[in-house]
Design goal:
D-Maltodextrin-Binding Protein, domain 2; alpha/beta; 2 domains; single chain; ten-stranded mixed sheet; 44% helix
Length: 321
Amino acid sequence: MKWVIAPLLSVGLLTTTHAQAQERYPTKPVTIVVPYATGTTTDLIARAFAPRLGEILAGTVVVQNRPGAGGTIATQSVATATPDGYTLLMANSTHAINPALYTSLAYDSRRDFAGVALVAESAYLIVASPQAGAKTLREFITMARQAPGRLNYASAGIGTSTHLAAAYFSSLAGIDLRHVPYKNSSDYISDMLGGRVEVSFVPTAFLLTHIKSGKLLALGVSTRESMHSPVEVPSTREAAGIDYEYTAWFGLLAPSRVSPTILTQLSRAVRQAQEHPDIRTEFAKLGLSSRDVPLAEFDAYVRADMDKLGPFVKASGARAE
């Protein structure tokens, strides 16, 4: 029987070795797909995190931008990617909006994704061109009330979070602003600087350089308290007596069939990266905050946002073009 035992032992060793090889992760570059152009807040966050995640995972993490169609092109590419943990999506609040915005999507936002981690959250700034003629939020609201539909606001597209942020504020302030949707948020910067569009509602980081230089004015921030860093901005309550709270989230998603082991490893890596001094410094510069949402709770966090924003999207009448 000895001649039988040796082959069996060899098979057992090979099986164990193969299983261990399968469990090693990563063994090749991990790609974070960003559904927006370079320079957007989502892109800045992904690029800040990629090198830190690479260090923690002892591998390489790269960022790939795939803008277009309100983020749905990139999102579909991740939904249909091989579920091996090597293709991830850096999503934001628009991911929770799109199911209500589009009559049909080539993917299921709830079924086809597994949440990895909440990476960052951001308040919104109400940013105005100096050519608009308003130096304060109260002055801007007065101008808008005196001339309904005359003042324009830019967004990254119909139904995006930048659109809904503006629509929500307008309803609270009782003003009528004319919506000018762009294909990407980065496309309207020159029009803002040139005064062709009067105002926009954007995550803190997006127009920060132009705000600091004085080329654009931050009239209010969408939080209960005023902002003191990275720029001084009054809350809308302080600036105009309006209780306006609106927050964007940014998080990593994976295809839904990625193994729980890899999801856990990725989630832990994100949480470690959030504690890195470079990330903390970068977040402070961009006006971003981080919050620990355990892996088991992140899917519920995203779905709760879908449930909250879906009715508002439908009530706004927004539909994807």
